[in-house]
Each structure stands twice: as structure tokens, then as C-alpha cells.
């Protein structure tokens, strides 16, 4: 028999086995250093998303550089000489940083109303705050009232200003990304030939290598920006913001949590294992097995090119749970067998332990593989990668545990287990009595839990707010809140509107010609006649509609400039030729700020850049996007085919909605897979149905809790269902397998339940206790997703153990799925 051969081999050649595991750990440990963490936007996008293709097309037509923003609240008045000198010095220092293309601040934006002048004079001599003779009182009025700058460049109270760092366009990155995406799209359309497969793989590797190097450069640039900012903090408050900075900080938080909480969890688990077992061997063994399994898995993932993303950042913690469960169940069984066969040799004790535990352990891993394998039916790459990582992880955990447990014990002399904690621990026996005597109470509680879960699930929302990823005490939270509340919002949304094409030959109206026409007509007749009153009216209607939405912070568009024109012309709009004059004659440096990001004459498009107030607790992104999509047609009057919503907010929302729908489908597939595994293991449809019922309890309860306490399902927490299912399946298999063994002794369900609670339940309790206390330390994290993950995992562990030792045995007693041969007493 395979188990007998395996047991004899590892207990005979235990030193060679230990050396083999040590070599594997060392080899894969070397490669583990190359596992990368990627929180970039690319990992959060659906490559087959039509909105992604459209967004890339739009960004190709408009100047849309990546940027960072500094929110500066000086101690001195904003326009004081001291403050302006500080901004100038800060600007000069920032321009020395590699990767920063230009700086936009109150020092260098065009002043159109300080004082108000004819448009031809404005174009011919653009004034800035650095120009000589500028009236600061007029400047303050313009900055606080101009649609261009109010609640955008400066706050309403004129105490805070934004300093925009425009970053250099990485042409190489774009080229490599485009080449990789071309092959990716081609592979989705048809099978690649051998040459194309090689080229596709080369394109992927080239893009990844370059992206990794640029990610390091980006981190260094952000750190240099912060270093430049540091000396100026004596001048006032400075906060750094921007989507790129958020992604970089998320990576830093994830790395920090993996390191810090990995060590903390390790120390706490050592303490808990000592309290339970009171023997060094049974403390060292789980720690060594967990360490070795995790290191080998990380190394394999690195070799396969798999990366940790925000979605898969907790996979190491999930593998730790699996490994601890396997080892602790083996330890508890070994101690149990020692009590029964104290005269056995060490090799014999290990043999009976492995023989008794190998089948349920293998099926625990197989069901986990089936469950996590369902994630690979999803079309989101980070979810597929998570499924691969977990399947590799749980498989490695099984192999490492079943190699290390017997070989490490064979190094040690047989020693009687210390049963102090076991003799004092009576909770399992208490649970058994409750199952026997209080069946009605348990069923009533289950019904209440079901109602609670249904209520909570009805309130569950799918939402992703980056500001809520950080505690209010952190610098990043304060900075994002400052930008949200005082400088027009954070998360960008773009709307592109196609406008009627103008026939230049018919566009001339001799009745409105003025002295400017001859000056620039020959330069750009198309631009001259593009800015019609009808187009500007449409642009203003869209602009005003977007500004009316309470969730919106700032709106920038051609309508912004049009509103400035009303100020310059005392309530009158810019006419066609004045707008064309600005478009043609305004210096390029200022044109990039107020014109070209919002109009593309060649494609007859107007672009609206909207920033959402990410910290608004009432912001529901999916609902808002749907509302805008509908009301641009019903309220503004645009034909639906003439406008598109694009940008990161749309793409993130698409990803999140797809993630949610895929989790629902994969969860259903996982439950069916697990049911099939139970059917195969126990050869009973009734057992499979009962097991699926029990396993759905933690999933439904955790979703209920999230709904009741307004914890949104986002890209970090949405995998909690898979975790809940995996933990409960583990307990259920071990309990049912032991129950069937006990039932074979006398056919008495109640007595078998008491014996199962007095044996296998110890392992279930001990592993749950160790992981619960260990994961509780995560609630101290400054990174909210880590905190939420730790808290939800603890709740899942508690619900799972209660469900498997109260509800599960109750169902077994009620439905008797294993049959019985002797009359119960």
C-alpha cells in the first residue's frame, strides 16, 4: 500500500528526507527574493475591456501625462513674499528630480483677469504672478473666483495651493505595453503560431523587465520628492498626492505588513503552541513546516513569474493557515495515539498517525485545490494568479508537512506528551453536550443567523475607495483628504463628446468678421471656424451638468475657459474668432494648461476631466457612472452614440464589477466542486449536501457582517469568500472522517459524536486558537485592507469552528447520513 511504503521510507531515511527539504527550501529561498509586488494600474484592468481600448485611444489624442500633486498650506499668507519665495525654491528643487518634466503652480499659470484686458492683449502678453507690476489683490481675486483655478489650483479660503508635478512621458513603456497588448489581443482572437508565441513571450518578458525597473525608479522619484519637501515643512503643511503615489504607497504598506506581521504572527503562534503543547518539539515543528512551505511556494511563484498584487497580497497568510492546520492535526493525532499505544516505538507511533491522518489531509488539499481552481475560470489575471498561487501553496504545504513531520520526529526520542492544557480544556465536551441536549436552540440560532445574513447581504455594496485604505492618522490619508476637500477631488473621470463636424467652406460668416480674421485666417482656417456657438453651448451644458453633481469636486473643460470669457467680456461669451485666436496664438506652455487637454479639432471632440471627491461617504461609483451615462442623454440631450465615459474611474469600476460577478459564479462553482469531492470521499449524496450546507454558513455570515457594518466588497476583501470556504472545508472533512471512524465502532451516533468531539475537535480548536490569536495582531495595521483581512479571517475562523462543532454534528445526528447498525441508547 502506498501509505505504508511512504511511511516506511520517510521514517527509515529521515535524515535524507530532512536534507532534501532543506535543499528545496534553500534553492527556492534564493529565488524567493525575486518575487515582486505590483500595485500598478495595469494589474487592476481587464485586458478585454472595450473601455480600456477606448481609454488608450483617447489618451493617445490628448496630452495626459502622469502627475503628482503637492498640497501646500503655508503659515504665511499665500501671496506673501515669503510664501512665493518658498514655492519658487521648492519648484526649482523639484525640477532637478529625474522624471519631473515641468511644474505648474500659482507662480506660472496665465493670469487672464489681473487686470481684465482685451483678448488680443492677453494673447500677445500673457501675465503670470512672476511678471513685473502684477497687482496681488487682483491675482487673489482671480485665483479664488476664476473657473480655471478656484477649487483646483487654490482652496476656497485661499490658504492652500496645489503644486502640480508633470512627469515625463515614458515612450519606451508605452511602446512595450502596446506590443505586448497587440499579441495579447491576437491570442484572444485566434491561436498563435509558433513564431508568434515566441514573440509574445519575448514581448511579455521585455515589458515586465522594463516595468520592474521603472517601478523602482518611480519609487525612488517619489522618495526624492518627499525628501525635497521635508525642509519646507517648517514653512507650513505639505502633503503629496496623485494616483501614482497611492499605488507606490500601497506597495510599501503591503511589503511592510508582510514583514512586520509575519514576524509578529510567528512570535504569537510560538507562544500559543507552547501554551497548548508545553513541549519544544511541538512548537518548533509547526513553525519550521510553515516557514519551509511558504519559502518554497514564494520561490516557485517567482520562477513562474507570478506577482503579488493588491488582490493576492494575503496569499501567504492563507497558506500559513493551511500548513498550521495540517501540522496541528498530525500533532494532536500523534499525542492521541501515544495515549492508546504507549508501548509503540517512535516509528510505529508515526506510522499509525500518518496512516490515520493521510486520507483526510489529502482530501482537505484536494478540496482546496478544487475550490481555488474555480478562481482560474475568471477572466481577471490577478484572480487567476491568486488561484494558481493558492493551488501551488496548499500542495506544497501538504508535501512539506508530510515530509517534515515524520522525519523531524524520528530525530527525537519518543516522549510522553504533556496533557495539561488538554485536561483543562473542556470546551469541546461542552459543545458535544449542547449538540445532544439543546438541538432546538442550535436550530433557532441558525435560523436567526440566516435571517441576519440575508439582511446583511441585501445591504452589501461593491465599492473601492482608495482613501479608505488608510487610517485617518496616516500622512497619505491626510493628504488625500486635503486634496479632496480643498483642491477639487482625487479620482479622475473623463467624458469625451463628439461634436458636429463643421464645413469650413460654409463656415464663413462675413457679418461677424473683425480685424483679427486676416491676421490668422491663413494659419488655421479649420480651427477658426471650429469654435461655433452651437458647440460651445453644448460644451457648457455638459460642463454645468457635471458641476451640479454633489459627488463631483472639480470639472475642467473648454467650458471652463468659456466661463472665464464671460468674466473678461462682462457677461458675454467668447465669439468664434476669439476662441480661435486663443487656440492659434496662445503660447504653447499656457495652451497645454487651459486648451489642448480639452479639445481635439481633428476628431471634433471635447474632453471633460472630472475629479471625484473620493472621501465622500455617499459616493457610489457604479451608480454615479450609470447616472451620468443616462442623464447626458435624458437631461443634457446628447445622442448616446456621441459621448463616452473613459478613464481610471471607469476601468476600476469595470474591474470591480467583473470581480464581484466572477466571485459569485466561481463561488457557485467552488461549492459544486466541494460537493463532488465530499461525494467521492464519503460515497454519500446526503453527506455531500450536509457538508455544502455547513460550509456555506461562514460565507453567508461574513457577507452578512460586511453588509450590516458597511464594509464594502472591494478588490482587497472580495476574496474572503474563498478563504471562508477553505477554512470550513478543512474542519468539515476532518470531523466527518473521524465521526465515520467512531461510528464504525458501535453504530451509536450520539456516542460517536462525543468521541469525535473528544479527539479530532482538539486539533480543530488548537489550530483555530493559534491562527485566531495570531491574526488578531493584524488589526493594528495602518493599512486598512490588512486590518479588515485580519479581522474578517478571525471572524471566519470562529464561525467555522462553531459551525463545524455545533451545526455540523447536529445535522449528522438529525439525518444520519452514514447509516448505523446498532440501536442508540
Q: How would you describe this structure in keywords?
A:
five-stranded antiparallel β-sheet; Multidrug efflux transporter AcrB transmembrane fold; alpha+beta; 9 strands; 825 residues; 6% strand
SSE arrangement:
Elements: H1 2-12, H2 14-32, H3 50-61, E1 67-74, H4 81-95, E2 100-104, H5 119-124, H6 136-145, E3 161-167, H7 171-189, H8 194-229, E4 236-241, H9 243-277, H10 281-303, H11 315-340, H12 346-373, H13 381-410, H14 420-424, H15 427-437, H16 439-458, H17 475-486, E5 491-498, H18 504-507, H19 517-520, H20 525-530, H21 533-547, E6 552-556, H22 558-568, H23 576-585, H24 588-594, E7 599-600, E8 605-612, H25 621-634, E9 643-646, H26 648-682, H27 685-708, H28 720-746, H29 749-757, H30 760-776, H31 784-815
Antiparallel strand pairs: 1-3, 1-4, 2-3, 5-8, 5-9, 6-8, 7-8
Protein described:
- Keywords: Cell membrane, Membrane, Transmembrane, Transmembrane helix.
- It is found in: Cell membrane.
- This is Putative RND superfamily exporter.
- Helix 29 packs antiparallel against helix 31.
- The protein starts with a helix and ends in a 10-residue tail after the last helix.
- Among the domains are: 193 residues, Multidrug efflux transporter AcrB transmembrane fold (Up-down Bundle); 165 residues, no CATH class.
- Strands 5, 6, 7, 8 and 9 form a five-stranded antiparallel sheet that branches.
- The chain is of the alpha+beta class and 825 residues long.
- About 1% of the residues have low confidence.
- A hairpin with a 4-residue loop joins strand 7 and strand 8.
Amino acid at each position: 500500500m502506498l501509505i505504508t511504503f511512504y511511511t516506511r521510507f520517510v521514517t527509515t531515511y529521515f535524515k535524507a528526507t530532512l536534507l532534501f527539504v532543506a535543499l528545496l527550501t534553500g534553492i527556492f529561498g534564493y529565488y524567493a527574493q525575486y518575487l515582486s509586488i505590483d500595485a500598478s494600474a495595469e494589474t487592476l484592468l481587464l485586458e478585454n475591456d472595450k473601455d480600456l481600448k477606448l481609454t488608450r485611444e483617447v489618451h493617445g489624442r490628448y496630452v495626459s501625462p502622469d502627475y503628482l500633486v503637492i498640497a501646500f498650506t503655508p503659515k504665511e499668507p499665500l501671496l506673501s513674499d515669503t510664501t512665493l519665495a518658498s514655492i519658487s525654491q521648492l519648484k526649482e528643487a523639484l525640477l532637478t528630480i529625474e522624471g519631473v518634466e515641468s511644474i505648474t503652480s500659482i507662480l506660472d499659470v496665465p493670469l487672464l483677469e489681473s487686470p481684465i484686458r482685451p483678448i488680443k492683449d492677453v494673447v500677445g502678453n500673457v501675465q503670470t504672478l512672476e511678471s513685473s507690476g502684477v497687482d496681488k489683490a487682483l491675482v487673489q481675486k482671480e485665483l479664488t473666483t476664476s473657473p480655471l483655478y478656484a477649487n483646483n489650483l487654490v482652496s476656497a479660503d485661499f490658504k492652500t495651493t496645489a503644486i502640480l508635478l508633470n512627469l515625463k512621458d515614458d515612450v519606451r513603456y508605452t511602446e512595450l505595453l502596446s506590443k505586448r497588448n497587440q499579441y495579447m489581443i491576437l491570442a484572444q482572437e485566434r491561436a498563435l503560431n509558433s513564431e508568434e508565441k515566441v514573440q509574445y513571450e519575448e514581448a511579455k518578458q521585455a515589458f515586465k523587465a522594463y516595468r520592474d525597473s521603472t517601478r523602482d525608479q518611480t519609487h525612488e522619484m517619489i522618495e526624492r520628492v518627499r525628501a525635497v519637501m521635508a525642509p519646507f515643512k517648517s514653512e507650513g503643511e505639505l502633503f503629496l498626492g496623485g494616483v501614482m503615489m497611492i499605488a507606490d504607497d500601497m506597495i510599501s504598506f503591503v511589503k511592510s505588513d508582510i514583514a512586520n506581521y509575519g514576524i509578529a504572527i510567528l512570535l504569537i503562534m510560538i507562544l500559543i503552541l507552547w501554551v497548548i503543547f508545553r513541549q519544544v518539539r511541538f512548537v518548533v515543528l509547526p513553525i519550521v513546516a510553515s516557514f519551509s512551505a511558504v519559502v518554497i511556494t514564494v520561490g516557485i511563484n517567482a520562477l513562474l513569474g507570478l506577482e503579488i498584487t493588491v488582490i493576492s497580497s494575503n496569499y501567504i497568510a492563507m497558506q500559513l493557515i493551511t500548513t498550521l492546520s495540517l501540522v496541528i492535526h498530525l500533532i494532536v493525532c500523534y499525542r492521541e495515539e501515544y495515549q492508546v499505544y504507549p508501548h509503540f516505538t517512535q516509528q510505529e507511533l508515526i506510522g499509525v498517525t500518518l496512516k490515520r491522518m493521510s486520507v483526510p489531509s489529502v482530501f482537505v488539499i484536494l478540496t482546496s485545490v478544487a475550490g481555488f481552481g474555480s478562481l482560474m475560470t475568471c477572466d481577471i489575471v490577478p484572480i487567476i494568479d491568486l488561484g494558481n498561487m493558492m493551488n501551488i501553496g496548499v500542495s506544497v504545504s501538504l508535501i512539506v508537512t508530510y515530509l517534515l513531520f515524520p522525519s523531524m520526529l524520528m530525530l527525537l526520542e519518543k516522549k510522553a506528551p504533556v496533557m495539561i492544557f488538554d485536561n483543562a480544556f473542556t470546551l469541546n465536551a461542552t459543545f458535544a453536550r449542547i449538540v445532544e441536549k439543546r438541538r432546538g436552540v442550535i436550530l433557532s440560532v441558525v435560523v436567526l443567523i440566516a435571517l441576519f445574513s440575508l439582511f446583511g447581504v441585501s445591504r452589501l455594496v461593491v465599492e473601492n475607495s482608495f482613501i479608505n485604505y488608510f487610517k485617518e492618522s496616516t500622512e497619505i490619508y491626510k493628504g488625500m483628504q486635503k486634496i479632496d476637500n480643498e483642491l477639487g477631488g482625487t479620482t479622475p473621470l473623463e467624458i469625451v463628446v463628439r461634436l458636429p463636424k463643421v464645413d469650413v467652406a460654409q463656415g464663413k460668416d462675413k457679418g461677424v468678421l473683425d480685424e483679427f480674421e486676416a491676421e490668422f485666417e491663413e494659419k488655421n482656417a479649420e480651427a477658426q471656424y471650429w469654435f461655433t456657438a452651437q458647440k460651445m453651448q453644448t460644451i457648457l451644458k455638459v460642463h454645468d451638468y457635471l458641476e451640479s453633481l454633489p459627488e463631483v469636486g472639480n470639472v475642467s473643460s473648454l467650458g471652463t475657459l468659456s466661463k472665464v470669457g464671460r468674466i473678461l467680456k462682462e457677461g458675454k461669451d467668447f465669439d468664434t474668432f476669439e476662441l480661435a485666436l486663443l487656440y492659434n496664438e496662445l503660447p504653447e506652455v499656457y495652451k497645454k494648461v487651459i486648451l489642448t487637454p480639452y479639445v481635439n479639432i481633428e476628431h471634433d471632440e471635447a474632453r471633460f476631466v472630472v475629479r471625484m471627491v473620493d472621501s465622500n461617504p455617499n459616493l457610489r461609483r457604479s451608480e454615479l457612472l450609470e447616472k451620468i451615462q443616462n442623464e447626458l442623454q435624458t437631461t443634457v440631450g446628447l445622442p448616446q452614440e456621441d459621448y463616452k465615459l473613459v478613464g481610471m474611474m471607469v476601468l476600476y469600476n469595470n474591474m470591480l464589477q467583473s470581480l464581484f460577478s466572477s466571485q459569485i459564479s466561481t463561488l457557485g462553482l467552488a461549492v459544486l466542486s466541494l460537493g463532488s469531492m465530499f461525494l467521492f470521499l464519503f460515497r454519500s449524496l446526503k453527506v455531500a449536501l450536509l457538508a455544502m450546507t455547513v460550509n456555506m454558513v461562514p460565507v453567508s455570515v461574513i457577507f452578512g457582517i460586511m453588509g450590516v457594518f458597511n464594509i464594502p466588497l472591494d478588490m482587497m476583501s472580495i476574496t474572503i469568500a474563498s478563504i471562508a470556504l477553505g477554512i470550513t472545508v478543512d474542519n468539515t472533512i476532518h470531523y466527518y472522517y473521524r465521526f465515520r471512524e467512531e461510528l464504525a465502532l458501535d453504530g451509536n451516533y450520539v456516542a460517536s459524536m462525543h468521541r469525535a468531539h473528544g479527539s479530532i475537535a482538539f486539533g480543530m480548536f488548537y489550530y483555530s486558537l493559534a491562527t485566531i490569536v495570531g491574526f488578531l495582531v493584524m488589526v493594528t495595521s495602518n493599512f486598512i485592507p490588512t486590518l479588515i483581512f485580519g479581522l474578517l479571517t478571525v471572524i471566519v475562523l470562529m464561525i467555522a469552528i462553531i459551525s463545524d462543532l455545533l451545526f455540523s454534528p447536529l445535522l449528522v445526528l438529525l439525518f444520519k447520513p452514514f447509516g448505523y447498525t446498532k440501536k442508540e441508547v
